[in-house]
Amino acid sequence: MLHYLTTLSLCLCKTEYHFIEENKSWYEAQRYCREKYTDLAKVFDMTDMSRLRNSAQNQGEAWIGLNNAGGNRMWHWSLPGVKYIQNDSSWNQSGRADSEAYGNCVRKRDKLADVSCNHPTWFICYDDNKTYYLIEELKNWTQAQSYCRSHYTDLASGLDQVDGEELTMMKKKRDPSNAWIGLFKDSWRWSDGNDSSFRYWDMQLFNDKQSSKTCAMTLLNRSGKWSSDECGKEKPFFCYDDKLILIKENKTWEEALNYCENNYKGLVSITNPEVQGRVQEKAKNADSPYVWIGLSYKCTLGLWLWVSDYVVCYDKWATEGKTEGCDMSVGVDRGGQHEWFSRRNNETYNFICSKQ
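Structure tokens predicted for C-type lectin domain-containing protein:
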């Protein structure tokens, strides 16, 4: 019997947060979470942030899994899930005005320039309808990000957005001298190695130049916004437990299916972009060029179906990556855009199981 996408399926594979009401240093908390769950809490977007806050009754401070080990600053896009790819032709490294200081945030004129985040200027928001909004208010970068997230989706993020024809024409029509976009750099890293660019700093309390305060905490009495403190101080903390498991063994699709059903819930079903994002995180660490997921072609029905019997309501097929056949299932590409490819069932790859 076929099932259609339900509210339950939308919740598949979400990270579970656990609030631990014991006072520990950041490193003690990290060790505790790794022993009993997966790691100290990571946060992917505002939905995760809301879920993390709702998992605690405490209204004080609590460690999360972000710390500053003093490494090189890395570029990130503000919009969660958009990966920064270097493109030197998009930059004008000498494009700062004489009055502008070098900094960690980016404004766009014709090209990009990295300037101080404190400079007030116009900014460009983006929403899920792929519409851009030039906001003619003077705000610093953090204020602009907060405004876009409150009223739209985020600051314009990704070179395909900021170099796109629609945004270029809008800027020419309105002719701002420059405007903030959603590109910034920092040296903060997640405990589990995740590359999530999501940040939720409380800029009234957070100072990135305080070299002794290198571990991040969420301030539950300030809407969950973040600040930092000395890592040796003792606080409650949040752990996360991931519902996806990468199995680094090469098996055929049927062998992978049996393994997941015998040891967990089953091969993962990807029913929305959030689950796709979590699969991508796992796929990066695979030892094979693809990872099996729970999607296969059913000849008797002439349909692609998930092992959970859901029809495909969300997909990320590669161009020309979809081949229908009785012995075909789907592997997610380990690199590139982590798109879906039809692969023969007798090929052997790593695979991803779901724990629920």
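The radius of gyration is 22 Å.
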